[in-house]
Task: structure prediction
Amino acid sequence: MNFNLYKYILGISDNSLILGQRMGALTGHGPSLETDIACTNISLDLFGQVRSYYQYAAKIADDGRTEDDIAMLRKEREYLNVLLVEQPDTDFAFTMARQFLFDVYHLLFLTELQKNKDLTLSAIATKSMKEVSYHQRFSSDWIKRLGDGTEESHLKMQDAIDTLWTYTDELFHQTEADKIMVSEGIGVDVTKLKDNYYQKVNNVLEEATLKIPESKYFQKGGKEGIHTEHMGYLLSDLQYMQRTYPNMEW
Amino acid sequence: MLILTITEQNIDNHLIPILAQVSDPEIPVLSIMDMGVVRSAIIENDVVKVQITPTYSGCPAMDVIGDDIKKALQEAGYESEIELILSPAWTTDWITPKGRKDLERYGIAAPLEAEADKEALLGEKKIVKCTNCGSTNTRLVSQFGSTACKAQFQCNDCQEPFDYFKCLK
Ligand SMILES: [Zn+2]
Result:
């Protein structure tokens, strides 16, 4: 098995799985019916993308595991998502800020992945891009509505952006598997997306009358499997059914 | 799952009437043929091989559509194999003119062109036509609707709430 390609695919798709889990957990808890539906729709798109990636990863691993095993039965240290997507729904501003800070990256990343010479990854990227551009439109809209809204909503959105900012730099961190895949012409060189990312994010923040955080302190670890304390709680929800009733099927 | 790239639709004429009976479970008036999700259907050694493509990645209807195709073909006396393909990605351009009319009759506004779609979904222009009275004096309620492919609108004139099928290109 091409272990690096396998890890590389998980590095991409675990982000969508964990963010999808966060958004899906809001079912019935959204601040209004419309936003509730939007969050679960975003979750559904992300899970759909994850299925394609994991089916491909299972084919490469070729060790009898299915897409479901990969999604449900790994240990915390084996999940390779960035710390940003596992951060909790402190309030709705956090939910939208997390989504926005990821969406901008996600779209830039998929735009590059689409040009990939690995045809499967390229096909998944092309399909996903269309969906993610709707996500980004939705989350950017909320950044502006809350940022440029009432005094209270502005404060909350600024707090969410300031808090989550510390996780943005990790998006551009390369793991060993990333570096090897880039050198083989399959991986996307994320370091090259950084300037464009902050440019796009800053434009929206300015339009939302929000302050661009100046902090130079960043946290990373998720891509190497070292997660924040929130991840364990998230996984115990995500994995509950498969752990309680092993091999159960829908 | 195998991801294949197919360049053009290749559907055996004998199979068209059978496949046309199958519809999207979430939009029962719309045949899968008019939705453009069937990319190829050929008879090989007495087995029908059908390739379908999802509208949205997470569309839960795809599994049901696959099962329904198998059932329809079985009733017509065919064994079949269904394959899900991702490339080229489905676009709303593949909905046929008849399909667009069926959507409208069902109360779902058909997708606009990409640029107009963006303006409609940002609430910049009132261009989405009410499926009840035909007025374009409508407003966006939410960019996301009852299924992944739709947005919610409401008519300012007749107050009818309706879905708009989002442009996907
Ligand atoms: Zn009307």
